[in-house]
Amino acid sequence: MPLSSTMYDLTASDGLKLRYAVDDFSDPWRPQETLILIHAGMGSSRRLYKWIPILSRHFRVVRPDMRCHGQTEIPGPDQLSIGRLAQDVVELAEHLGCKQFHLAGSSAGAIVSIQTTLDFPRYVKTLANFASTPGLKNSLIDMNKWVNHIRAKGMKGFLEETIAERFPNVTDKGFLTWFIEESARTNPEAFYRFGPLMKEVDQTDRLHEIRCPMLNVIPGHDPLGAPGQYEVYRKHVPHCEFIVYEGLPHNITDSVPERCAEDLLRFLLKHRSA
Amino acid sequence: MNKFKASDGLEVAYALDDFTDPWRPADTVILVHAAMGSSIRFYAWVPHLARDFRVARIDMRGHGATQVPGPGGLTVPRLARDVVELADHIGAQRFHVAGSSAGSTVAGKVAIDCPDRVLSFGAFACTGGIRHGLQDQNSWVRKIGEKGLAAFLRDTIADRVDLNSVEPGFVDWFIAESGKTSVVALERFVPMMRQFEFVADLHRIRCPTLAVAPGGDPIHTVDHYRALPENIPGCEFVVYDGLPHNITDAVPDRCAADYCRFLLNIAADKRR
Q1: A112-164 pLDDT, tens per residue?
Q2: What mean pLDDT is reported for chain B?
Q3: Which residues of chain A make contact with B249, given a CB cutoff of 8 A?
Q4: Region B161-168: what's the mean pLDDT?
Q5: In the predicted model, is pLDDT for residue A7 greater than 60?
Q6: Of the candidates B87, B85, B90, B124, the residue with the CA atom closest to the CA atom of residue B104
Q7: According to the 3-state scheme, what is the secondary structure of A230-261?
């Protein structure tokens, strides 16, 4: 199995064991800057592997596995909330001795990143949102339909039957097979809790609190979010950069990962410490 | 760092970085560092290479996290064998091998000894043997013994990097990192490398070869470096004008970009 990054352990303040990868090929004599990348729902740190060569020459890149995902433990009944997911990000930063960091997330990972910025503003130097509305409450996702579909067909069956919606323009069968197998590792019982949790979140009313520079990279043809729902960032976030990938559906961080990482790098280099 | 046990029982350390697509076969590249170095000194190369290749970086015997061998355990053939045994350990039947300075001598020895295993040879600051250089490396050992490794490196840093172009902070880091090398091991390693010469065997290298030479090196002339293109059929030869010996540290991104281009051209040729 390729993908080489070593996974490390951290015990969160509520006792749950979290796992994360660190890749850092930045010059050791320069002040170290940390970038934390949060994967999408049904994903893991592994799904962001293509981003690392582009970013890790400039930044220490940290990729946690969110609760319910990857190698991180599945939380107990009282251990899963949007606030707790955000707290994990900050506890990971503290664990790494990092008082401030750049933060970027994909889809549900972006919702967690936004929540982290809202709840712990002094930690976050810059925020990047790939393909997420501020919570899924107003999105077009019918989470009950997803959950019922997974219950009926299993995680792999659900992914196989919906893969064409996610990647209508992708013809690389190897990638599609890998994406399905990788995402199907997600524990369905955990997703039955994680997905509906995201569907309850609406951060719109707090977006004006985001004071750090924010990059928003939005799929231009997303069946999961109406275009107007992405516009709220431009309306409410004071330091907001907004890029639309015309014609692409929701999973831009997987379908055009290098393009995403290049745009993120350009944004980060513009805003990194002098 | 990962470790494996060499066939003589010594524990050899290596790093492995791989961001290639998991569903495609990927060639392996093995990088061999310079004397007084370690796998860490190739850190800047990894992002350039690891999206397309599985990148293994070995710590040579007596360097980095690899143990210092006992008597008889430090020869160029043994160092070359470690590279092949690393390839075996990580399941690479065939592989690209590249090295910096003394590491390129080891890499070249691998290419000579194992033509059926080596896909290509990357030679950075590689001559056919260091004894014909402009400096007596045995005098380095004496100076290191007298002053300590860090002081020796600071005194001779201008031979290694262009102080006008490297970033502030680089020199201190380079000396601190190189200064971790075991002096006891170096006292054996340097004279051993000085004894070794392989100009006469270079013609046996038949794989694609890229030789990159520093053009302003106080340790070796460009003519010394020309031994590779003059003896290896089809060798691509690139000179970095004006730069002292340690090109792989001072301009790592340039080296890695040139090397990646060379490797991708081989891959493209294979597909044609």
Answers
A1: 999 999 999 999 999 999 999 999 998 888 899 999 999 999 999 999 999 99
A2: 93
A3: none
A4: 89
A5: yes
A6: B124
A7: HHHHHHHCCCEEEEEECCCCCCHHHHCHHHHH
- For the purposes of burial, counting CB atoms within 10 Å of the CB of B150, is it exposed (0-12), middle (13-18) or buried (19 or more)? middle
Residue B113, both tokens: 């000894």
| Residue from B206, B4, B242, B218 nearest B112 by CA | B206
Return d(Cα B166, Cα B144) in angstroms, integer. 24
- The stretch B149-156 carries a mean pLDDT of 90
Given a contact cutoff of 8 angstroms between Cβ atoms, the answer to whether A59 and A35 are in contact is yes
Show Cβ contacts of residue B243 under 8 Å, excluding neighbours closer than 6 positions: B162, B214, B215, B216, B217, B250, B251
Q: pLDDT-based confidence at B121, cuts 50/70/90?
A: very high
B50-75 pLDDT, tens digit per residue, is 999 999 999 999 999 999 999 889 99
How many residues would you count in chain A? Answer: 274
CB contact under 8 A, B19 and A29: no
Residue A50 and residue B19: Cβ atoms within 8 Å?
A: yes
What is the average pLDDT across B118-124? Answer: 98
pLDDT band at A107 (very low <50, low <70, confident <90, very high): very high
| Residue B129 DSSP code | -
Q: Which of A46, A169, A138 is nearest to B18 (CA)?
A: A46
For the stretch A217-229, pLDDT in tens is: 999 887 666 667 8
Look up residue A128 and give its two tokens: 């990047």
Nearest CB neighbour to B19, from listed A49, A57, A177? A49
The region that residue B31 occupies, defined by phi over 0 for left and psi between -120 and 50 for alpha, beta otherwise, is beta
Is this prediction's ipTM beyond 0.90? Answer: yes
Which amino acid, residue B58?
I
Q: Give the global pTM.
A: 0.94
B4: amino acid identity, one letter: F
In angstroms, the CA B224 to CA B130 distance is 9
Q: In a 10 Å sphere around its CB, with 0-12 CB exposed, 13-18 middle and 19+ buried, how is residue A138 labelled?
A: middle
- Interface size A-B, in CB pairs within 8 Å, comes to 65
Backbone angles phi, psi at A214, to 5 degrees: -130, 130
Question: Could you give the angle at the alpha carbon of A65 between the alpha carbons of A68 and A32, nearest 5°?
Answer: 155
Give percent above pLDDT 90 in chain A: 86
Average pLDDT rounded to a whole number, residues A246-265: 94
Q: Which residues of B touch A176 (CB under 8 A)?
A: none
Residues B165-196 as b or e (16 or more Cβ within 10 Å = b): ebeeebbebbbebbbebbeebbbbbbebbbeb
Dist CA A235 CA A142 (whole Å): 26
Taking an 8 Å cut-off on Cβ atoms, the answer to whether A4 and B173 are in contact is no
| Residue A245, phi then psi, degrees to nearest 5 | -90, 95
Q: What angle do CA A105, A175, B90 make, to 5 degrees?
A: 95
Q: Is B113 exposed, middle or buried (0-12, 13-18, 19+ CB in 10 A)?
A: middle
- Cα–Cα–Cα angle for B1, B66, B3, rounded to 5 degrees: 40
